[in-house]
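Dear Dr. L.,

I hope this message finds you well. Following up on our conversation about the binding site, I have prepared a predicted three-dimensional model of the protein together with EPU. For your records, I am including the exact sequence and ligand specification that went into the calculation, followed by the structure tokens. Please feel free to forward this to your student if that is useful.
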Amino acid sequence: MNPEKNVPLQPYNTFGIAAKAHVLVRVQGEDDLRAVLADPQLSTLPRQVLGGGSNIVLTGDVKALVLKMEVPGMRLAHETDKHWIIEAGAGVGWHDLVAWTLDQGCPGLENMALIPGTVGASPVQNIGAYGVELQDRFESLDAMDLFTGELFSLNAAQCGFSYRDSVFKHASGRPDGLGLAGRAVILRVRFALPKRWKPELGYADLERKMSETGIHSPDARQIFDWVCAIRRAKLPDPQVIGNAGSFFKNPTVSPEQCADIIAREPKVVHYHLDDGRIKLAAGWLIDACGWKGKTVGHAGVYEKQALVLVNRGGRENPCTGGEVMTLAKAIQTSVYERFGIRLEPEPVVI
Ligand code: EPU
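The resulting structure of the complex is given below.
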């Protein structure tokens, strides 16, 4: 373990916001975490876990000890009658894992191609895209309890997954015992990839690709290529334009609330959920309020997808976290005034 001081975080957050970590430790395995816990000074600091930095907004220098997760490794851990069990280190890039599993002949993650971030961050917000969520392919994970130094494993039920949510997003100390934010550090994740693979094609963008190409029984590689093409067409590449993916969650409303909105706004994009509630497309709501292309300082709303906030100043004159949050609040206010819906941000504000 080698604590580094005053480390620039601009390369480590996909928005490209300029900020520094007062102290940063690179974590390649549990021994680095144990060394932190045994260190008289470091062990007293509050901690901030950093994965791929693709879901954070930095509003200033980080005074907490930054644990930069760099646990490597991808392997076939074992197999069951029905699944390949693939294990990956928390520091592995998510897209690298998706591509590697396909190369190994183990499909199942292809709908989630090109999602930015790391394997270790993927369970935290139960990432998902094009009809597949992490929880559909998750087997278990290993983590360390920073309060006790113990290693433990969790299965899917114990992770409490729901839409862009898990126990890792909730503060520890809840009476129900759930809530591991600030307490658990994910070291390795295992995925159960089905040996009898079936394509997941029930998403409008993929259906469009099928009719455009005339390919109605695509293999996993084909779906991977389609998802990459769809994402590249409407989501900005963080290497080119800094961003943190979707900035707000898609809100859910009751059928009554939805009927009320449809009466006023017949075109509102909405999806019926299994539990009877209705999910609204936040991007559509923001777009309808005229936000595409608008800016606050160097923070802006992406022209092709209103749900994505971007850094217009590049690496040289990056937006600040404050500008991003001012823009986000203005969007929330205007969506609330027009639709009566409170949008909830997806990224973690630090
Ligand atoms: N829409 C507009 N205007 C916009 C943006 C969207 O009218 O500016 C409409 C679209 O035409 C579409 C609907 O809103 O009818 C939904 O848009 P889209 O299909 O792009 O998906 P989304 O709901 O905006 C979600 C995830 C994405 C994921 C895609 C594909 C959330 C918050 N976002 O976006 O995830 O890639 O579906 O599955 O659930 C992320 O979380 O960072 C992310 C990119």
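In brief: The chain has a mean pLDDT of 95.

With kind regards,
A. P.
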